[in-house]
């Protein structure tokens, strides 16, 4: 039913699949798949699609809404409330995941700094006449050189990111 409604409303608006795809920032094949029932748009895209076609999501989904019946409006508002709660939960999960990644990155940076402090660049006292030690020492020195210069910037950016994820919305 969704596929037929998308096609019917698109044609009634005088839009080609290509024109609708451009408005939605998708490829024409995506619109074709929707209209042939091979796939369906996700919830965000469904809302955008309804806006572009100047209709409601309910009409796209094949539900008829009569404004005279308050029971129907209550049912629709409950459905929208459930959808909004699901979207809010999805956003919170994304924010928590990003926050955990940033916290882990900060912990990793601190641990590497501790390890480098404990090592005290001991590789500089190695016998560099041995080619294997020379390669290993050069790699360690290069890593330490780059890490000590970039890690503080990454750490500060991560802390700012963590603070932003805790900000009330």
Automatic annotation (TrEMBL):
Keyword Phosphoprotein: no
Domain HTH cro/C1-type: 6-60
Transmembrane segments: 100-119, 139-166
Matches recorded under InterPro entries: Cro/C1-type_HTH (IPR001387), Lambda_DNA-bd_dom_sf (IPR010982)
Organism: Dorea ammoniilytica
Record's keyword terms, sorted: DNA-binding, Membrane, Transmembrane, Transmembrane helix
Signal peptide: none
Protein known as: Helix-turn-helix domain-containing protein
